[in-house]
Amino acid sequence: MFEQLINGLTQGSVYALLALGFTLIFGTLRMVTFAHGEIYMIGAYVGFEMIRLFAPSFVLAIMAALVITAILGVVVEILAFHFLRDAPHVTSLLVTIGISILLINLTQLIWGPETKSIPYALLDKLDYGEFEVWGVYITYLQIAVLTVTVLLMAFLYLLINRTKLGMVIRATAQDYEAAYAMGVNVNVVFSTAFAIGSMLGGVAGVLIGVYYNLFYPTMGQLYGLKAFSASVVGGLMSLPGSVVAGLLIGVVETFAVELGASSMRHMVSFLFMILILLIRPGGLFGGRELIQARGD
Amino acid sequence: MFKRLVLCSSFLFLALLLVVSATPSANAADTIKIGLSAPLTGDWAEYGNDFKRSVTMVFDAANKAGGIDGKQLELVILDSRGDPKESVLIAEKFVANPDIIAEIGDFSSSSCMAAAPVYEKANMVQLSPTSSHMDFTKKGKNMFRVVTTQGIEGPFNARWAVKDLGKKRIATVYINNDWGVDANKYFVEEAEKLGAEILTQEAFVPGEKDFTAILTKIKRLKPDLVYLPAFYADAAAILNQAKRMHFKTTVMAPGSLFSEKTIELGGQAVEGILVAANYFSTDPRPAAQAFNKAYQAAYGKKPNMFAALAYDAAGLMVAALKVPGVDSRAKVRPALEGLKGYNGATGSISYANGHDPQKELLKITIKDGKWVVYNR
């Protein structure tokens, strides 16, 4: 049981890390992006190339992924949201779906459709070892993924609630027209939020890519969907909510397998989410939003 | 009005002329024609060209050795592009040509099965080197294949695991698609018959990457063998996660894992896995070595499994045609069924007990990062 709990928390921290990005973007723009899973995928591929071509170093891989995904995030924001600020929400949503398909196909063109992996000679240099607790082997990489998730959550929470930038973001989220009238450059704010959210996806891509050591063009699809669901279950605008929901979904999935439904794990986890939303339509942390919803 | 009629009829006349001139003018009596339907362009072009190379090689050799009863073999090749609709059109063309007496191909099961009714209606043999879907040979009495199905491979592996290796506690992890469900079913049925205990059968959906939960469960059951009907990316993920959990056991898998990609993606974790393959380039059996030499001499490169299966398909066809009195479509089928223990590059082939060959598969394993023949 303890081992399955660890498995579940590791799996869940992937969802949580990605869900943070969704939550940040929704929290500021009140818009959903379906290209987030693909930004995670691009982050993973950037990390893969950095490690393969330059050096087996997490720092280098993550730095490169941060830069590329931040730029990509801004591009997505400009294409899908900037020009469509006054269009119906569904238009932007469709554009992000289009971008996600475009990114998958571009990746297939550049890297091919097959699964790639970092050569083991290089990967062994990234191996930071493991330790044993009650007969369960835990790698430091697993610990790193979980720690990074919690740290990023705390960092974002402080950024949004305690800094001037955070105040500007909150103001824009509440009413971007009013914020604009107060002299806030809302376009910069939207782009910044998108860049930060995408960087979270990029970090997740590198960590998870290396953890499983499997890189393929559609790697973001299922995780993107799960993370979006985690974000919704967490309350859509609550950073701690998305982390808790992500971890919870990971654990529920793992125990679904343990109790004999290995091919139905995704069904069980989505059923679990539906159940939570039926009981608490606003999500787990729905009452305590990161940013108050607009009055309209 | 009249003008238009003239125009139309002259076009019709021209078209007819083309059709007439397109029909072969060579004397049908000195050649025996065989159709080859294969994907020469498109996603599976590589495999289609393997077919073309191997079959051409066999027919050339047969012609050099005097042909069949003094007649030369002629291959009619058409490109199916890996599209089942296209392979149906090809089948109709082959059937319409009275000189073609049998067909080899196609590559994918869906292409083969789409074209099967056309061949069956014309009572023409359709011999596919690679179609492995269980239903293909059930489409009619003229459908044959060279590759083994999971119905053969599963029980073969079960006997290897239970009888030869003495493994009694077995767990399976399989991919939840048509192929994986079959592969798991036929293995489990035979293993249970032989007295092994199946501890658990875990399915995973295609695309799954996290197997830690499944593995934790299996690890606790302490199996002495895990059977893995999956593809290389899944297997690499499963075995790497098992290694991370310090879970060591004997691992066996169908031929689907026989690929260099398994080693590339799996690294240390796939060392020692046991696989049954149709063909292996360092297979010591003489027929396989003869094929290897001939192929490398003709094309200057190493053949793969698909080339070997096509080579055997062509060899089987030549052997059937050499049976005295085989001179029409209807006679090819009994001739093929009458072949006993045809010694091919992919093993000994007989169609006496059905059109799915029962072959002795080759046991291989990974040692020091290379595929090698398994020696106990």
Chain-averaged pLDDT of chain B: 86
Number of strands of chain A: 2
Summed up, the domain count of chain B is 2
Order of helices and strands of chain B: HEHEHEHEEHEHEHEHEHEHHHEEEE
Shape of chain A: globular
Indicate the topology:
The complex is a heterodimer of chains A (296) and B (376).
Chain A: H1 2-29, H2 36-53, H3 58-82, H4 89-111, H5 120-123, E1 130-133, E2 136-139, H6 140-162, H7 164-174, H8 176-181, H9 186-212, H10 219-233, H11 239-258, H12 265-279
Antiparallel strand pairs in A: 1-2
Helix pairs in contact in A: 1-6, 1-9, 1-10, 1-11, 2-3, 2-4, 2-9, 2-10, 3-4, 3-9, 6-7, 6-9, 7-9, 10-11, 10-12, 11-12
Chain B: H1 2-22, E1 31-38, H2 45-64, E2 72-79, H3 84-96, E3 100-105, H4 109-122, E4 125-128, E5 143-145, H5 150-164, E6 169-175, H6 178-193, E7 197-204, H7 212-221, E8 225-227, H8 232-244, E9 250-253, H9 260-266, E10 274-277, H10 286-299, H11 305-322, H12 329-338, E11 342-344, E12 347-349, E13 362-367, E14 370-373
Parallel strand pairs in B: 1-2, 1-3, 3-4, 4-5, 6-7, 6-8, 8-9, 9-10
Antiparallel strand pairs in B: 10-13, 11-12, 13-14
Helix pairs in contact in B: 2-11, 3-4, 5-6, 8-9, 11-12
